[in-house]
Structures are given as C-alpha cells and as structure tokens.
Amino acid sequence: MEPKPVQPPKGKLGVLLVGLSGAVSTTFVAGVQAVRKGKAKPIGSLTQMGHIRLGKRTEHRSPLIKDFVPLAELKDLVFGGWDIRDGDLYSSSRTAGVLEQRHLDMVRRELEAIRPMKAVFDQQYVKRLSGTHVKHGKNKYDLALKLQEDIRTFRKKNNLDRVVMIWCGSTETYIRPSGVHQSIGKLEEAMKKNHKDIPPSMLYAYAAISEGVPFANGAPNLTVDIPALTDMAREKDAPIAGKDFKTGQTMVKTVVAPMLKARMLGLHGWFSSNILGNQDGAVLDDPGSFKTKEKSKLSVLEFILQPELYPDLYKDFYHLVRINYYPPRGDNKEGWDNIDIFGWLGYPMQIKIDFLCRDSILAAPIVLDLALFLDLAKRAGLYGIQEWLSFYFKSPMVGPGLYPEHDLFIQLMKLKNNLRYIMSEELITHLGVEYYE
Fold first, then answer.
1. How many CA atoms lie within 13 A of 108 on its CB side?
2. Same domain, residue pair 304 and 346
3. I need a surface site. Which of 83, 90, 213, 350 has the fewest CB within 10 A?
4. Per the omega criterion (within 30 degrees of 0), is the bond before 243 cis?
C-alpha cells in the first residue's frame, strides 16, 4: 500500500489537555515554553532530539526526526484544556511542586495567561478527588456536547488550523467493556441514560473524535479502547492512541524482560513495588483506581515472555505489583523491582533494580511527542488506532485479533519504520546481507 501525501503543518496547532492543572500537564506546558525561549533543552523528546537512519549504513544519512518528517514547530503550539480546579497555570505549577521556582519564573507570564475550562467530572470514578470547577448537564450526552462546543470555541478563539487532545487526567475506577460499548448508537443511548459504564474520560474521547480531533489516552482507563469509538475514529478521520503513559517502572520492564527472553533465561518471579506522593499516588490509593492501573502494569510480562511458547522458562512465574501512597515523596517516584531468574541447569540468580525517577519529568516529553505525532498522522491520512505509537504506552492499543507488542526496541523500530513509510523512504530491517555479498 502506497502512503498518502502528507499535508504540510500550516498554521497553529492547538493542544488540549484533560487535567490541565495537574503535574504532568503543567510540567509539559512550562517545559515547552522554556524550550521555545531557548532557556532549556527538550530532553526526553524523540521528536525534538532523536535521529533516524535512512538508507544503508554506508550512506551516513541520519537526520533529526523533526527535520525528516513535517512536524508542527513548537512556536506554533497553543495550549488549553480542562480541569476540576480553577486557577492559572503558574499557580497550578507551583502547587504541583515538580519544577523549581527558577524554571517557573522563566515562563511566568505565559503560564499566567492560561486557565482551564470547566471539566466534566464524577467522583464515583475517581473517589480520592473532588471537583469545584465542573460542568453540569442534563445527562452524559449533554456533557459530551458541551465538550464539543469547548473544542470549537478553543479552535475559533485562537485561530487554530488543527487540534489534538491528550488525556493527562487521573486513573478512573476499573470498568470492563460491556454491551453499551459495542456500537456508537448503543454508546450514545447509554450516555443519554447516564449509564454507569460511561466514565468522564469516555465523554472527552467521544467529543474529540466527533470533531475529527486526534485523541491519546495517557491513563489506563478504558476510555477510547472500545469498538464504538475505534470505529467512530475511522469514520471521523481521527487518529487515536493509548493507553497509559510508559514512564518509569514499566519502561524498565519492557527492556529487561526482552533481555531475559533473548538469552533464554528463566523467570521464577517478579515483584514490583512503587512509592509516590503526588496526586496520582493519592488517586491510586483507592482500590478501584489501583485495579485499573494494576491491569495495565501486569499485562506487560505475559505478552513479552510468551509462556505458552516457553513453558520451561516462564510457565507460572509469579508477578506482583504494589503501589503505595507516600506523601513526603511528592512527584519523585521510586520503583523497586526484585527479579528471581534461573539459568544453565536451573541455577538461581537475581536482578534488583531501584529506579528513583520523577514521574512528570518522564511524562512531559511523551505528551509533546504524542501531540506532534498524532497531528502528523492526521495530516498523513492515518486514522483510527495508531499502533506505531505503542512506544509511549504501557497497554498499547491494537487492532481486533492482534496482541500488543511490548518490547521497547521493537516498538521503536516500528515507530521509525512508520516514519520512513510516511515519507516514502526504504524500510530498515537490519538484515545487512548487502554489505557482505
């Protein structure tokens, strides 16, 4: 299949964030503003700092990704979104406590100019939060229409050519796919009846897709990962991606687990413990929200290790994940892993990893890359599920009947080959026989 011509990124790109006043969103917006002013480097962003090899190794062609594909420029980004708390982004950034005052002072004027719109919120889905800056409507369908109107107003007010939306909000309580999620007609009817299986995140996804706006889900919520919305995304020409930003501990798992399988080393058990003290930690202290996150974090090893193919190595390995709310740690998260493995003749060994990371510092460049890549996908005529963006997610969305690819380096190869495909460059397989013929 030949790629479609990529439309150039003319004009401004609006970036709508759900959870605009939260730690991830404020860190992202403040960071982009600082980079735009030349006060900081976009470290962690593949779109801004990554190179891509083109052609044979002997050709020595490795441009920056942003010089190879037509991405929107940072100067053309306009920020907006929704939150359950009012207040400008400068005040919210100080409350989040991620960035130091010296960095906030660099962009104070820009942050003070941004305030969130009223959010759609229901405490039964996020029990540890309460909202004071929220919308009211006749039913969930009416609330979704209000979100659509917000998108149109934001586009018109800022004279935008294009818009993308990214969920940076909290983890909702666990919801199983049900009959109301199977078609757009059933979904809309359920929204009008205020069905319990329609959480706020689903209303945002519905509103975005209805407007043809690309949507990414940064939390493990069900949200857009249902037949009704994946079908609707194709019909409305909206790229979608998700779910759950891959930042700390799970990113490490998607590197270490492929190493074990590559060397045919066995696994007895993997115990993962997390402590974090930000709002995310408080939300995940609720059993319902934790179950949603647990499902996302537990799925990785099964898909990578494929115990059905390697029963001698991975059958019945024990995998446990714990998340503990520890307020003194703030946004600085600690992920500790104890891994019990075995090798030649069954002799036991251990791997221990202690990753002291900063949650929002790792997530902010993911938000930037997703905004730019989803906009690229829209202009390249790629609609529906964007599996090539699996690199950024713990639980990547895939098409019906497919299993997700979790290996970080396979995901990166898939991403870069997709960029080569879009730009009609030769795909790279790393076979290399031509060098030795």
1. 7
2. yes
3. 350
4. yes
Q: How far out from the chain centre does Cα 329 lie?
A: 23
Q: What's residue 289's pLDDT? A: 77
Residue 335 near residue 249 (C-beta atoms within 8 A):
yes
Query: CB atoms < 10 A from the CB of 355, how many?
Result: 14
> 287-305 vs 249-262: helix axis angle to the nearest 10?
20
Structure tokens at 401: 């009947």
- The residue from 358, 386, 403 where one domain ends is 358
**In the 8-state DSSP scheme, what is residue 401?**
T
Counting the structural domains of the chain, the total is 2
CB 422 within 8 A of CB 68: no
Judge whether 222 lies within some domain.
Answer: yes
Cα gap 197→206, rounded to integer Å: 14
pLDDT of amino acid 217: 98
- 364: alpha, beta or left, given left = phi > 0 and alpha = psi -120 to 50? alpha
* Residues 136, 269 within the same domain: no
Both tokens of 421, joined, read: 């495909």
Q: How far apart are the first and last CA of the chain?
A: 30
Its domain, for residue 92, covers 13-245+361-422
* Spatial CB neighbours of 133, under 8 Å, sequence gap ≥ 6: 83, 84, 85, 86, 116, 118, 119
The vertex-111 CA angle with 108 and 113, nearest 5°, equals 110
Rounded CA-CA distance 36/76 in Å is 10
Using one digit for the tens of pLDDT, what is the confidence trace for 94-145?
Answer: 999 999 999 999 999 999 999 999 999 999 999 888 899 999 999 999 999 9
H helices then E strands: how many in the chain? 16, 11
